[in-house]
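Quick one, tokens below. Sequence please?
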């Protein structure tokens, strides 16, 4: 158990470094490519990406995740999973290739079919990459691959896409660089994980994997559709340039959220899966981890929304003005998406893929209901539609998780109140900084972003001092301490929190 504790902490550290580097590299690539290409090529890639992302979500059939969540998987099971998922991915790739010209005609964007053809290897390689990743997750062995994967992205996607953009390849350069980067990443994962891949005709032991995996596949498909449908509506109604603006706004905000979301997901999923028989311990960890993540993501989202014009101008440059309002709305969505994704990860690790499916299907349904009306308001309407749908999904997901873990709703509301109230104060600080900047005629984007960020941070920090004792800094320190104790209790049997606290105070 002590070894598992060490691996959990090491995994958190290495993944944090990896995703931190990746976010920095991605922002640098965005700075360059957005100025070289403009919105339209990104609109074509976003339209093709809707189909490819759904295909990536369903190609592994959820069997790679089942290798972690379902106990008793041996090398023979891994080979059976590889055989079935690779066969399905090949059939799926053939279907996408046949449907690509139809998708292009429906979207009304020349080049979508070409982009889909160039991205087909990404679908075909998805099962191998996922099985290799899940093998690493199960072992919690990230050191050799974490930082290397971030540098692969910088060199292969960043470097190659910039070179091809300078050579006039347009959207083709983007999809070629993405395909090469994904293939290299899959090879790296496979080499490091040494997963016992192979083809076999012996599919015994696959039934429990399929019962878990198919439910997860349906949930992942619904989640990908909920994210992709706004792009379909925006592309059909508003054109490639508008879709490019929305896609870039979505991409930037998602990349900022990915670091926390993926770190928590990749560590929490195997950790929760190993302790499925202890819902009380898992519920305690969830109730204390989620407010901590909200305490980080709510101020970040509010500050980015307040500085939306400056951030878009700095990151994307001139010609992306239509991305300003969607970026502001999607920035406010950051904490909601983080809460929803973390909660769905917890449900998946507990084997509750059916509840995950219901939540994602409901989110997708709300998107379908809102989008036909929202698209008439342009990109801001599309952004607000996905905001409302994601909020509904987050509420439903948290309700399902609380029931599964036995956590009381009132306790969860009380735990989430401090970061929510602090977010209001951060918004007030950002507004005050904006007024002062306007009054003094400051126009530099970097200075404005820094001033708005400092104003929001000062207001949030001041709020922690003047709010009641329940929301004071000591309470937040207690929250972090409780969270770390809960992490340790996941991997070794410690006494309950009150006993731990008393024993610490007695010493």
């Amino acid at each position: 158990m002590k070894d598992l504790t060490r691996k959990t902490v090491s995994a958190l550290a290495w993944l944090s470094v990896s995703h931190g580097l990746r976010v920095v590299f991605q922002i640098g690539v965005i700075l360059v490519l957005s100025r070289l290409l403009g919105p339209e090529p990104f609109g074509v890639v976003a339209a093709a990406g809707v189909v490819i992302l759904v295909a990536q979500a369903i190609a592994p059939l959820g069997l790679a995740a089942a290798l972690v969540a379902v106990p008793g998987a041996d090398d023979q099971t891994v080979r059976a999973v590889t055989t079935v998922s690779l066969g399905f991915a090949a059939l799926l790739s053939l279907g996408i290739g046949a449907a690509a010209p139809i998708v292009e005609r429906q979207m009304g964007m020349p080049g979508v079919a070409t982009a889909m053809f160039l991205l087909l290897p990404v679908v075909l390689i998805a099962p191998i990459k996922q099985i290799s990743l899940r093998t690493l997750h199960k072992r919690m062995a990230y050191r050799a691959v974490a930082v290397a994967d971030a540098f692969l992205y910088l060199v292969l996607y960043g470097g190659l896409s910039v070179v091809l953009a300078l050579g006039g390849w347009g959207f083709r350069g983007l999809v070629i660089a993405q395909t090469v980067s994904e293939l290299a990443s899959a090879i790296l994962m496979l080499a490091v994980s040494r997963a016992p891949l192979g083809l076999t005709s012996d599919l015994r032991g696959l039934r429990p994997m399929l019962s878990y995996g198919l439910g997860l596949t349906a949930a992942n498909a619904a989640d990908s559709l909920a994210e992709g449908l706004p792009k379909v509506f925006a592309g059909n109604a508003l054109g490639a340039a508008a879709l490019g603006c929305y896609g870039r706004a979505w991409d930037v905000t998602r990349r900022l959220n990915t670091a926390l979301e993926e770190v928590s997901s990749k560590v929490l999923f195997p950790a929760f899966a190993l302790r499925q028989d202890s819902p009380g311990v898992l519920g305690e960890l969830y109730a204390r981890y989620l407010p901590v993540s909200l305490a980080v993501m709510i101020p970040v989202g509010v500050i980015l929304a307040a500085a939306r014009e400056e951030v878009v101008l700095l990151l994307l440059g001139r010609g992306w003005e239509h991305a300003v309002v969607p970026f502001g709305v999607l920035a406010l969505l950051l904490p909601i998406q983080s809460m929803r994704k973390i909660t769905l990860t917890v449900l998946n690790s507990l084997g509750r893929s059916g509840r995950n499916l219901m939540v994602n299907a409901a989110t997708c349904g709300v998107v379908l209901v809102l989008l036909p009306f929202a698209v008439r308001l342009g990109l801001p309407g599309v952004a607000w539609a996905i905001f409302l749908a994601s909020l509904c999904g987050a509420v439903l997901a948290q309700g399902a998780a609380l029931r599964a873990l036995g956590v009381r709703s009132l306790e969860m509301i009380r735990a989430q109140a401090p970061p929510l109230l602090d977010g209001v104060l951060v918004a007030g600080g950002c507004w005050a900084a904006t007024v002062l900047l306007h009054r003094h005629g400051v126009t530099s984007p970097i200075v404005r972003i820094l001033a708005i960020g400092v104003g929001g941070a000062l207001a949030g920090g001041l709020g922690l001092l003047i709010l009641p004792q329940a929301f004071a800094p000591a309470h937040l320190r207690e929250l972090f301490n409780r969270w770390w104790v809960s992490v340790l209790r996941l991997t070794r049997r410690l006494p309950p929190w009150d006993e731990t606290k008393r024993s610490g105070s007695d010493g």
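Residues 468-475, 490-507 have pLDDT under 50 and may be disordered. The radius of gyration is 23 Å.
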